[in-house]
Structure formats: structure tokens, C-alpha cells
Design a protein that fits this description.
Radius of gyration: 61 Å
Structural class: mainly alpha
CATH architecture of one domain: Orthogonal Bundle
Number of strands: 8
Order of helices and strands: HHEHHEEHHHEEHHHHHHEEHE
Shape: flat
Strand content: 5-15%
């Protein structure tokens, strides 16, 4: 029993102690809570005071800011008002100045209007005076005309005809003198310029010239080869003539065979073929045909290269290969003994130099001048003149129309299509007329001179004419009693026109009319 009672007492004591501890904890918590509440209230009061103080400070700052902004707005408003007042004053001054100017202008206009009215009145008065003077003048003229008709026994129409004839004669006289003076000046200037251009072109051209022949000579190492070339019963020489179209002349000329033909191209093929046969040593008809055919192919290639080389020297780098081949063939073509390829190259050089001097298209002039005789390469094979064939060939191979037309006019068969065409024709005439360039038949030369003098002698008033300088000039003596100085001017022009229409000649012909007046008397 005692242990149980002691245990109960312990429990009771423990409970009592626990209750005391709990009571003490409760009391402590209350005290702490009271203290905490007190501090919180103090802090809340402090925060409220701080907030009130901050609010007061901010209110004061806001008021200050508002006052400053209001001051700034007021200042700006006063400045803007001051500026507007100044602008208004300036505008008022401008208006006042303009008003004064308008007033001054109005006064000036009124003054000018008064002056114009005064001038108009003066002009009206002068017009009335002028009308009166004109009427008086007409009256005097009519009276004078009636008096003249009475004195001269001529009507007004008859007098007018006499006066017109007199005026016409005076006008023709003055026109002839003026024409003579202008013609002399123009000829002097044109001749000077033309001589300058042509002389410079000829000096810079410096082309070689030589007269071609119709025969070629093949040198033989020995006379024994003549028999081998003739062959048994002449079969070799017949084979050569048949294959080449050239006549072979084997005579007593030592160490040489003569080739005769009008076609230099055929003569060249025959010459090369014979030289190859002599070098080879095998001479018989079959070998002759083989060698001649091979030489023809080589010669065709050579003429193409020759045409290309000549075109390259002239700066023509885009010609069609067929045109180059045809131009190369002209190396073996002559015209009055002049090599046509050399002539074409010379004409191209002259045309290019003259075209550059006068500011024309030098490329068109050079191209047309170089190709102007291309038809002569095929005129023996096809129907038509060398001019017609040349035009067809150029158009067929894509040459420009400017080049074709300039080439087509080089014999003056058509009107001048361009200034370049005139340059080409002039260059062609210079090259053909150059001394030593061409052969001329004596008979045709004499006939041309006789016809030139005959044209001059056919004109009325001509006493004698003389062809000089190989037909480059004709001097005409006229009868001074029948031809006046003014008529001599017209006579020279008429004769020049007849010569242009009736004669064909290279270059130009100078027509000089000479009128001489002599006064003869005798002392007795």
C-alpha cells in the first residue's frame, strides 16, 4: 500500500508542479504579449508621425514646384507677348512703307499716263501731217508723170519697160562682176585647200608604180631543156598551152622561153608550173596536168594571202575571206598597164588621208576605195560591167550600204550618195592620172585633145583655142569686139559645162578665157 501511495503523491506533486509551470508560462506569455503590443503601438505611433512629417515635406515641395512652374509659364507668356508685340510693330512699319511706295507708284503712273496721252496726241498730229504729205507727193508724182509722158512721148508702161531693161542690164553687169569676184575668191580658196589636201595625201602615199606587160620570160638553165619542154611532136608544149591557156614562144632567144597572154594570172600559173617541171625533171603530159593543177591551188592561196596582207596594211581587219581572195587576184590584173591591186591600195590610202583632213568617215572611204575595182576580178568570167559585178559581190558578202554606194559612184554613174563617195572618186582620179601610172593610146589621146578644142571653137566669139598640159588645161582666145569682160565669165562656165557633159577625162580641166583689147594708132 505504501508504494502505491507514494506513487500517487509523486503524481500529484508532478501535476501540481506542472500546473505551476504552466501558470508561470501563461503569465510570462501575457507579459511578453503586453510588452510586444506596447512596442508595436509605439512603433505605429512613430510611423504615423514620420508619415505625417514626410507628407508635410512633400506637400511643401509640391507647392514650391508648382510655384516655380507657374513662374516659368508666366515668364514664357510675357516673352511671347513681347515678341508678338515686336512683330506687330514690324508689320505695321512694313505696311506703312508699302503704303508710301504704292502712293508713289500711283503718282508715277499718273504722270506716265499724262505723258503717253500727250505723245498720242503728237503722233496723231504727225500722222495727219504725213497723210497730207503723202497725198501731196502722190499728186506731184502724177503731175510729174504726166509731164514726162508729154515731154518723152512715152506712156508709163513704155517708160517702165525702158527703165526695167536699163536696170536689168545694170544688174547683169553688177552680177557678172560680183560673180567674177566671188568665183575668183572661191576658186582661190578651194584651189588652195584642195592643193593642200591632195599634195599632202600624195606625199604621204608614196606608192610604187610600174607599167605591166603582156609577156613573161622563164629563164632556162640550158638550151637543152627547150626540146624537153616541146616534147615529142610538140605534145608537151600543147599540154602546157591547153592546161594554162597561155601561148609558149620557144624561139632562138638563148636560155629563155616567152609566155604570152593578156591575163597575168594565167601567165603567173604557167611560169610557176614550168619552173616546177624544170626543177622536177619529169616533163610529160600527165605530169604537166598534175603540176598545173597544184600550182593553181597554191596560187589561189597566195592571192588570198596577198589580198589579206594588203587589207591588213590598210587597217581593214574584218573583210570577208572571199573578198580578200578576189582582191588578191587583182594583183594579176592590169588596167591601162597599171596593176589593179596596187592601184586599189593607193586609192584607199589617198582616200583615207583626204577623208581625215576634211573630217569625214575615213573607215568608209578607205573600205570603199580599196574595194572599188573588185568587179574586175570576175568580169572576164561573168556577164556585166565591173561596177555591177562589184556591187553584187559587196552586197552578197555583207558590206554596209554606205560602202557599197560610195564604191558605186567612183565612175560618177550615179549621183553622189555621200561626201565619202566624192573622196573615193577623187582619189581614183588622182591615182589614175599620176604620171607613169597608166599607158594611154596615142590615137585616143590625140582625139580627146581635138574634141576638147572643137568644143571650145564651137562657141560664138571664139577665135582660137589651145589644149595645154596634156589636156589638163584649155586656153581660149575670144574676139574683144564680140565678147565683153562679163560675157567672158559666162563663156568660161558654159564651155566647162559642155566639157563635163561630152568628154570623159581623169581629174579636172582648167578652162581659161582670154580677152585682149588693143588700141593701135600710127604717127604720121
Amino acid at each position: 500500500m505504501l508504494p502505491i501511495a507514494g506513487h500517487l503523491i509523486s503524481v500529484v506533486l508532478a501535476l501540481v508542479a506542472a500546473g505551476a509551470v504552466f501558470a508561470a508560462w501563461i503569465a510570462t506569455r501575457k507579459r511578453i504579449a503586453a510588452e510586444t503590443v506596447g512596442r508595436a503601438e509605439e512603433q505605429a505611433l512613430r510611423i504615423v508621425k514620420d508619415a505625417e512629417r514626410d507628407a508635410e515635406t512633400r506637400r511643401k515641395e509640391t507647392i514650391l514646384d508648382a510655384k516655380e512652374k507657374a513662374h516659368e509659364i508666366l515668364t514664357d507668356a510675357e516673352r511671347q507677348a513681347r515678341l508678338e508685340r515686336q512683330q506687330a510693330q514690324s508689320l505695321e512699319q512694313d505696311l506703312a512703307r508699302r503704303d508710301a511706295q504704292l502712293t508713289e507708284r500711283q503718282l508715277s503712273f499718273e504722270r506716265v499716263e499724262r505723258e503717253l496721252q500727250a505723245r498720242e496726241k503728237a503722233i496723231l498730229a504727225r500722222e495727219q501731217q504725213a497723210e497730207a504729205i503723202v497725198a501731196r507727193h502722190q499728186q506731184l508724182v502724177a503731175q510729174h508723170q504726166r509731164e514726162l509722158e508729154r515731154v518723152a512721148s512715152l506712156t508709163a508702161d513704155e517708160a517702165r519697160d525702158v527703165l526695167l531693161k536699163q536696170i536689168e542690164g545694170d544688174a547683169r553687169h553688177d552680177a557678172a562682176n560680183l560673180l567674177k569676184r566671188l568665183d575668183a575668191e572661191a576658186r582661190e580658196q578651194a584651189a588652195s585647200k584642195a592643193k593642200q589636201y591632195i599634195t599632202e595625201a600624195i606625199q604621204r602615199s608614196a606608192s610604187e608604180h610600174a607599167i605591166e606587160t603582156t609577156v613573161s620570160v622563164v629563164d632556162l638553165p640550158s638550151d637543152d631543156l627547150k626540146g624537153r619542154i616541146i616534147g615529142r611532136e610538140g605534145r608537151n608544149i600543147r599540154a602546157l598551152e591547153l592546161a594554162t591557156g597561155v601561148d609558149l614562144i620557144v624561139d632562138d632567144t638563148p636560155g629563155a622561153i616567152i609566155l604570152s597572154a593578156f591575163d597575168p594570172y594565167r601567165r603567173e600559173i604557167a611560169r610557176k608550173a614550168i619552173e616546177k617541171l624544170i626543177a622536177d625533171g619529169r616533163i610529160h603530159p600527165a605530169r604537166i596536168e598534175e603540176v598545173v593543177e597544184k600550182v593553181k591551188q597554191e596560187t589561189d592561196e597566195d592571192v588570198r594571202k596577198e589580198g589579206a596582207a594588203t587589207a591588213f596594211e590598210l587597217g581593214l581587219h574584218d573583210l570577208h575571206p572571199e573578198l580578200l581572195r578576189l582582191m588578191g587576184r587583182l594583183k594579176y590584173r592590169t588596167s591601162y598597164g597599171q596593176n589593179v591591186l596596187s592601184h586599189s591600195a593607193e586609192v584607199a590610202r589617198l582616200a583615207g588621208i583626204m577623208a581625215k583632213e576634211v573630217g569625214l568617215d575615213a573607215h568608209v572611204a578607205v573600205r570603199a576605195a580599196f574595194l572599188h575595182d573588185i568587179g574586175k576580178a570576175i568580169d572576164r568570167e561573168m556577164q556585166g560591167t565591173h561596177l555591177e559585178l562589184g556591187i553584187d559581190v559587196l552586197r552578197k558578202h555583207g558590206e554596209s550600204e554606205a560602202v557599197v554606194m560610195a564604191m558605186a559612184a567612183h565612175h560618177m554613174d550615179i549621183d553622189w550618195p555621200s561626201l565619202e563617195a566624192m573622196i573615193v572618186q577623187a582619189a581614183d582620179a588622182i591615182s589614175a592620172a599620176r604620171p607613169g601610172a597608166r599607158r594611154d593610146i596615142l590615137e585616143s589621146y590625140v582625139k580627146r585633145l581635138e574634141k576638147l578644142e572643137g568644143i571650145a571653137d564651137s562657141f560664138k566669139g571664139v577665135s582660137k583655142s589651145f589644149a595645154l598640159q596634156a589636156g589638163r588645161e584649155i586656153r581660149i582666145m575670144v574676139e574683144s569686139e564680140k565678147i565683153s569682160d562679163e560675157e567672158a565669165v559666162w563663156l568660161s562656165k558654159d564651155i566647162a559645162r559642155r566639157i563635163e557633159h561630152e568628154l570623159e577625162y581623169p581629174g579636172q580641166i582648167k578652162v581659161t578665157v582670154i580677152r585682149e583689147t588693143r588700141a593701135v594708132d600710127y604717127a604720121k
